[in-house]
Design a protein that fits this description.
InterPro entries: Peptidase_S1_PA, Peptidase_S1_PA_chymotrypsin. This protein is mainly β. It contains 4 helices and 20 strands.
Length: 327
C-alpha cells in the first residue's frame, strides 16, 4: 500500500477504537456499538503505524496483551484491510527505559560531557545524555523528561548529575539544573518525552561528532545510537507514524503517544534500561532522526523487544532549540 493509504486506514481504525461511549473494564467485556475494540481509561488496545513492506507499506498493528478485544480487532483488520496488508506483533508492556547498571566508560564521571554518557535527576536513577543543543547562544543538554524531570514530578532548578545516582553520582557530580520540559499529558496524545538541563558555570561539553542536521524517515532505514547501557548499537526502522503507543510511567500512570518511530535491533537489542534519552541517527554518522525514550519486552524479530523514539524535529521544535553546531 501507499503511505497515504496506510495513514487513512490508521486514522479510520483509531477513531473506531477510541469512542468516548466505550467503557470496558480491563480483562474482558463486550464492546458497544459494534466497535472492534475499546479504550480503557485514556488508552486503547493497540498501536497502529506504517511498517515498510516490499515497495510500499503495511499497517503496523502492535498490541500489549492477548485477549478477545485484540483478537477480534485483528480478525476484522485481516478481513477489511487484507491479510497481506497488516504487520501484527505482540510486544508486551512498553515502559520508559530506567536504569539497569552495567560496566562501561559511559557510566563513569566524564568531563567534558559527551553525548551518550550517564545523566539523571539528583533523586532518580540513570539515563542517557542525548545531545548538546542550543537556544540562542546558550548551550543546553537534551534528554528525556522522565530522566531529568522525573516525568514532570520535579521542579525547575533541581540538580542534574553526571553520572546519574545509579552509577554512583552524588552532589559533587552536579553538572547543571533542570531548565524546562514538555509536560506529559494524561488525557491527551503526547508527542515527545523531552527535557533540557542548563549547564553550571565551568562545566564543559564536547558535542564533536553529534549530528547537526535532522532527517525525515520513510521507514526501513538503518539507524544507530550511543547509549549509557548498551553503548553503540545498530537497528532498523520497522514502523513510522505509530499512534496509540501506550507507555507505563509507573506512578504517573499509562500515557499515550502518537507519531512515534519503532526500531528493531539488527544484532541483538537496540536498547536496554538506562538508554533512555539517546539520540538516534541514520547509520554511518548520518542526520538525527529520533530521541529514544521507551522499549517493549518482546515483538522484535529476534525476541529482544522493540524500541520507541520521538521524532527529533518534533522534539527540537517543542523545546525551541537546535542541535549544537546547526545554523
Amino acid at each position: 500500500m501507499q503511505l497515504d493509504t496506510v495513514r487513512n486506514i490508521k486514522q479510520e481504525w483509531l477513531s473506531r477504537v477510541r469512542p468516548s461511549d466505550l467503557d470496558i473494564a480491563p480483562g474482558g467485556g463486550a464492546d458497544r456499538a459494534g466497535a472492534p475494540g475499546a479504550r480503557v481509561g485514556a488508552v486503547g488496545p493497540v498501536a497502529l503505524g506504517a511498517a515498510p513492506a516490499g515497495s510500499g507499506y503495511a499497517l503496523a498493528v502492535r498490541y500489549r496483551e492477548d485477549g478477545p478485544l485484540v483478537a477480534r480487532l485483528v480478525e476484522r483488520l485481516r478481513d477489511e484491510v487484507g491479510d497481506g496488508e497488516i504487520d501484527v506483533r505482540g510486544i508486551g508492556p512498553v515502559r520508559p527505559l530506567p536504569t539497569r547498571p552495567t560496566p562501561g566508560q559511559l557510566q563513569g564521571r566524564l568531563r567534558p560531557l559527551v553525548p551518550g554518557c550517564s545523566v539523571c535527576h539528583e533523586a532518580d536513577t540513570a539515563g542517557t545524555l542525548g545531545a548538546v543543543v542550543r537556544r540562542g547562544q546558550e548551550q543546553l543538554l537534551l534528554t528525556n523528561a522522565h530522566v531529568i524531570a522525573r516525568s514532570g514530578l520535579a521542579s525547575a532548578g533541581d540538580a542534574v548529575l553526571q553520572p546519574g545516582p545509579a552509577d554512583g553520582g552524588t552532589a559533587r557530580d552536579r553538572v547543571g539544573v533542570l531548565d524546562s520540559w514538555v509536560p506529559l499529558e494524561a488525557d491527551a496524545a503526547n508527542r515527545v518525552d523531552a527535557a533540557l538541563a542548563r549547564l553550571d558555570a565551568g562545566i564543559e561539553v564536547d558535542p564533536a561528532g553529534q549530528p547537526t542536521t535532522t532527517a525525515e524517515l520513510d521507514g526501513d532505514e538503518l539507524v544507530e545510537k550511543l547509549g549509557r547501557t548498551t553503548g553503540f548499537t545498530s537497528g532498523r526502522v520497522t514502523a513510522i507514524e505509530v499512534d496509540d503507543v501506550v507507555v507505563d510511567y509507573g506512578e504517573v500512570g499509562l500515557l499515550r503517544f502518537d507519531g512515534q518511530i519503532e526500531v528493531s535491533g539488527t544484532a541483538g537489542a537496540f536498547s536496554r534500561g538506562g538508554d533512555s534519552g539517546s539520540l538516534v541517527r541514520l547509520a554511518d554518522g548520518g542526520a538525527a532522526v529520533g530521541l529514544l525514550y521507551a522499549g517493549s519486552e518482546r515483538g522484535g524479530p529476534d525476541g529482544t523487544g522493540l524500541t520507541f523514539c520521538n521524532d527529533i524535529s518534533t522534539v527540537l521544535d517543542a523545546l525551541g532549540v537546535v542541535l549544537s553546531g546547526a545554523r
